[in-house]
User: Fold these one by one.
Assistant:
Number 1:
Amino acid sequence: MSAEDLKVISKAEVAEHNSSESCWVIMDDKVYDVTKFLMEHPGGDEVIIEQAGADATESFNDVGHSSDARDMANEYLIGRLPAEECQGAEVNDPTKAPKIKAVASGDSLKDIILSPTWTNFLIPAVISVLVYVSYKSVMRLF
């Protein structure tokens, strides 16, 4: 589906769909009708309803959704914002789900640490366990 095939929907029109009965969100300058997905959302419907009728790009990206979740978003794609209302995101291919940088095995440690993936939770957890074990070991000596 090309950009020309998608309906152009203004932010004002999206803002009218801000309830559980009709829930539209904007992600990367594309409009999604997620009304039917509300009850299926693993995090509960309230987290999506908080973003209803508005731009949910930052919230969606901050959570660190899986690539499957990003692909699933295409099922709910209904349109795109007019060029004058876009935030500078890619509008050339509106069929793609919102993008976030994936971490490949060859990426640097900095890329891994700064990536919004499960490693952001695993690394601090492992460090915490190591500090705790070290502390307990030292305390046994005294």
Number 2:
Amino acid sequence: MAKIKITQVKSTIKRPKDQKATIIALGLGKINRTVEVENNPAIAGMVRKVSHLVKVEEA
């Protein structure tokens, strides 16, 4: 599978608990923090859930 870079671009303040938990599960939590992960169906689902809070790029 390909690697993707996920960067948090918006805050989780005033967001539902499940979105906050998803951000933490992805390894983010602060604005402009970036993680590089393998793209798989589980990660894709998490990214889709918080797509309005993150930016995704091919690595």
